[in-house]
Design goal:
Shape: globular
Radius of gyration: 19 Å
Structural class: alpha+beta
Order of helices and strands: HHEEHEEEEHEEEEEHEHEHEEH
Bound molecules: 2,5-anhydro-1,6-di-O-phosphono-D-mannitol, magnesium ion
Largest sheet: 8 strands, mixed
Strand content: 15-25%
Length: 333
Amino acid sequence: MKRISLTQYLVEEQRTNNTIPAELRLLIEVVARACKTISHSVAKGALGDVLGSTETENIQGEVQKKLDVISNEILLEANEWGGHLAAMASEEMESIHPIPNRYPKGEYMLLFDPLDGSSNIDVNVSIGTIFSVLKAPDGMGQPTEADFMQAGTKQVAAGYAVYGPQTMLVLTTGNGVNCFTLDREMGSWVLTQRDIKIPATTKEFAINMSNMRHWHEPVKRYVDELLAGEAGPRGTNFNMRWIASMVADVHRILNRGGIFMYPADTRDTSMPGKLRLMYEANPMAFIVEQAGGAATDGVNRIMDIEPHKLHQRVPVFLGSRDEVALVTGYHTA
Ligand code: AHM
Ligand code: MG
């Protein structure tokens, strides 16, 4: 079988479909290279002294793992000097990171969750990197947080790397979803799945069931119906999987269908859900929609939400189209 590298794929996309401007292509290649470096650190584990926590907390008040900080540094350093970006933002940094004056500035803005699934780092379970690319507003001066406040529909690219038994990169530039596997010996990303599509129906769901007692009524109703199996209104048995790394859970859904849920609950109405809109929900929603699935916050399409804060949280329901429609319908009924 002829091997197609990420570089070749991107160049051909640029040439034939004109969906990827040259600058964006180079930016994606830099992000992919950074993910390769992160993958290398992740794989070393204790041998690279990368496990465990730092003494610091991030903006969300969460204790940072060493790998959270290392991955953040890798992405910042890799992307600072290339000239494709105006600014970056990350789960691990309180405010945005403008490109330093010593480097040329580009027209894109990059957001990322450098190491998603932090609770799985120290137990050798799949984790990942999620990223989203926006265009800088026309005529933007010194970038500010306000420049990042763009709905998910404005994304020009999104992707994630999953560091599992294999390291994979899943990418969309708005023209379907493709998956590349890292060839560790050659150091290159090889196209291994083209135009991935999520089945519209499913018999698998993913949610952290330990929060059940806190859920709102529509989520309770929906999950109760799934749990009732053959005897319930759905008339069929559902299976459940929860990896607690969004990248790994979404990757499974992309490959075999399913619905992923991280709902808001009754505990804290000022903090709807756990996942962050700008660098978790939006990029995943873009990928899932490009694969024929759907993504809502229970009421609205995630990519239509107008953001008002860099680190804002959002309830997430994404995956197989029909299931997302059903649980969303329960919220709006
Ligand atoms: P993180 O960005 O701090 O790693 O948190 C996000 C992760 C998601 O990957 C995952 O879906 C969720 O948190 C798991 O949460 P929980 O521990 O409540 O199951
Ligand atoms: Mg995360």
